[in-house]
From TrEMBL:
PANTHER family the record matches: DIPEPTIDE TRANSPORT ATP-BINDING PROTEIN DPPD, OLIGOPEPTIDE TRANSPORT ATP-BINDING PROTEIN APPD
Keyword Glycoprotein: no
Protein name per Swiss-Prot or TrEMBL: ABC transporter ATP-binding protein
Major location category of this protein: membrane
SUPFAM superfamilies (alphabetical): P-loop containing nucleoside triphosphate hydrolases (SSF52540)
Keyword annotations: ATP-binding, Cell membrane, Membrane, Nucleotide-binding, Transport
Entry keyword Transport: yes
Amino acid sequence: MSGPLLDIRGLTIGIPNRSGPPVQIVRDLSFDILPGEIFGLVGESGSGKSASALALMGLNRRPLTTLRGQALYGGQDLLAMSRRSMRKLRGDRISMIFQEPMSALNPLARIGRQIAEMFVLHRGLSWSEAGPKAVEALAAVQVPDPEGRARAYPHQLSGGLRQRVMIAMAMACGPDLLIADEPTTALDVTVQAEVLRLIRGLCERQGTAVLLISHDLGVIAQMCQRVGVMANGRLLELRDAKALFTDPRHPYTQGLLAALPRLGSRATEGRHRLADLDMAIDRDAPDFAATYLCPRGEAA
Ligand SMILES: Nc1ncnc2c1ncn2[C@@H]1O[C@H](COP(=O)(O)OP(=O)(O)OP(=O)(O)O)[C@@H](O)[C@H]1O
């Protein structure tokens, strides 16, 4: 495929307001995602990252409404698509994982059945054909004892394993785009590094592009080729990751980076072990990631 995989132009999201124009919470957001790239969207809480991702998937949280914009995917505008076409695309060509896997998993259904359902719905397999594929999908996300785990219910798994199950579901059909919204924010830092490495490895193998949403600049630095910085519903800066981290242009981005603890400064000496661990797990991460890796919650 030549050109962008997804081309978002002027996405504007708002809350309808009876006594005046809608209150805009995302304004004129434009960026594109290239086939196979990991594109990061970073910004502090409330900047509009999740609302934008959900709008792309046709899943606005009430009362949010898409007011304007286009999101061109293979010549089709996702924002103008019928619900039926969108349902076909979701989970198949474009899939999504969230911070909290329980919100996507059915607590009453066995793990294997939930993954198998992806193959039944999107690939037309019978349940008996889909069962073994679900076990394979669990093995691909490095869930130990995949056959046993396929028979388990979500509450019987740890948070890290549940996140792997959600990744298995999201990647089951080899999507073109994975939208990962704070996929590791709820996990402890060692599990976080493993899950990020897993997402990157699977997506590289399957040629899947990723829209990675995070407030954590360390995660973004480690994973992404290009990055957009959002604040107050606007995209302030869009750059190659290396350029953004070494030479931020927008004062807001400069402030975000300046507020981060850097390796080598006295305040961060105690964190060397953590960063060493991350780098050991992820040796091919860009060098600049080492400078900005910091534990979750310590970013500005
Ligand atoms: N359902 C809703 N109703 C009203 N306002 C909402 C709704 N969902 C989000 N907002 C508002 O829209 C803005 C953007 O929220 P959004 O969840 O996209 O931010 P975010 O950057 O993803 O931050 P976080 O990581 O905390 O979710 C915020 O001001 C939020 O309060």
